[in-house]
Every structure is written in structure tokens, then in C-alpha cells.
Amino acid sequence: MVIIGEIIRVCNTRRFGVLKTPKAVFNKLLSCKGVQLKNPIGEKVLELLDGTTFQGSIRENFALMNHYVVFDTQRAIYDLIELGHIGSAKALLRVIFEANVKAKWIYQCASEKQLEQLQKDAVKSTVNKKRNIQFGEMVDDVEKMHPNLKGKLKQFKEEHWKGLNSLTHTGVMQLKRYSLAFEQSGLETEIETILDFSNRISISSLGDVGKITNNKAAMQVSIDLISAL
Questions:
Q1: For a Cys-Cys bond, which of 48, 75, 189, 196 suits 42, CB 3.0-4.6 Å?
Q2: Degrees (nearest 5) of the Cα angle 63, 68, 71?
Q3: Distance between CA atoms of 46 and 40, rounded to whole angstroms?
Q4: pLDDT digits (tens, 9 = 90+) for 110-144
């Protein structure tokens, strides 16, 4: 969980969730199109995992599938930014964060009954069995398994979840970029933050996949990658 702690530290430092919007929306976005972005982390994940197979338990397989969502989404974010679709890339930030945390929860926290419910997309809460589990409960469960986080994962979720939802569900944070009334600079910083966040989440998932599948190369590469950022 060292990697998750680093993600939280960096994103809090950069005030993720309070991203700046471009001064001249359409001109700025058009200028981004055609820019060739290198994605060494996405390429390294493919190099390590492409073509590999793993037959595990329901718990392991569902956790892995969520981590694979992280890898696909990280590459999609790069593709969208390369095309100049910054807003669409930002809409995927909740997806990549949620998939990573959910994968950890499934692998480390879910009960056998919840694993059965997971296959029907109807996982019940252990706090209130009459309702479906909420993402916040998953975060709490993961925190309990990793006291070294000292509540930082929960704090990050509380500070930025509303913003992530706004980006994903066409809230104000997503819509304001299309209004010239918001004359703010900082597109380059915005893109850097998006890519950095997606990279760190992807590295975290790579390390977890290594642990689940006993892929020592993946575990070592995840450590090397996070150290190099």
C-alpha cells in the first residue's frame, strides 16, 4: 500500500479536483490535437501482462478484472488527450480511481456472500444489509486492512469524490470548460495532473496484479516506476 499512499500525497499536493480550465477553450483544445503523447507506463503494462493467463478463484478473477479496467482506462485517457478531448479524459478519472479501490476491496475485504452478490451486481452493505454497498464503505474496509494509511485514503475520497462525480456526471466542473466566461489559464498543468493521476493508479494496479498472480516482475516494475515518478 506504499504506492496508494504516494498517490494520495501527490494528488493532495497538486490540489487534484480543483483543476484549472483553459483561457480560450476551443483554440486551446484544437491546438492539442495531433500531439503525440508517449505512454511508457501503459506500454510497460502491456509488455508485462499482454497474452498472460491466470486461472484463479472468483475473488482473484474479479479483482484482476477491475485492475484490467484500470489499465484500459489509463490508455484511453492518453488517447483522448492526444485527440484534444480533455473533458472526456477527466470524466474517466473517477472510473480509474473507483476500479482500483474496488479491486483492492474485492481481493482483501469482500465476504464470501458479497462475492456471490458481486456476480449479480448487487453487493450488499455489511453496515446496513438492506441496501447495496456504497463506495465509501469499500474505502473504509480497505483502510481497516491497511492501518498504515492513517485515514489518508478516506480523506482523499472525502475531499475529491464530489469533484470526480461532477466530472463524470456532467456537473459544473465538467461543463464550465465550455464557457468562455471561465477565462483561466493552466491547460498544460491540467493535462499533467490528469496523466500523473492515471499513471499512479495504473502503477498501483500493476503491483496488485503482481501480488495476486505471483508475478514478481510486475511487482518489481511497479516499485521501480513509482520511484521514478
A1: 75
A2: 135
A3: 10
A4: 999 999 999 999 999 999 888 999 999 999 999 99
Angle between helices 152-168 and 93-108 (to 10 degrees): 140
Q: Smallest Cα–Cα separation from 74: which of 199, 223, 209?
A: 199
Give the containing element (helix H, strand E) for 27.
helix 25-32
* Coil, helix or strand at residue 183: coil
| Alpha carbon distance 215, 36 (integer Å) | 31
Residue tagged 503494462 (cell numbers) = 45
Element (H, E) at 2: helix 2-13
pLDDT at 135: 95
Of the candidates 228, 95, 101, which has an alpha carbon nearest to the alpha carbon of residue 156? 101
Per residue, the 3-state secondary structure of 83-114, as one string, reads: CCCHHHHHHCHHHHHHHHHHHHHHHHCCCHHH
How far is residue 143's CA from residue 153's CA, in Å, rounded to a whole number? Answer: 7
pLDDT per residue over 161-198, tens digit each? 898 989 899 888 888 777 655 555 677 888 899 999 99
CA–CA separation, 145 vs 150, rounded Å? Answer: 11
At residue 192's C-alpha, the angle toward residues 190 and 193, to 5°, is: 65
The most distant pair of C-alpha atoms in the chain lies apart, rounded to whole Å, by 53
Nearest CA-CA partner of 3 in 125, 141, 153, 192? 153
* Separation of alpha carbons 205 and 100, rounded Å: 6
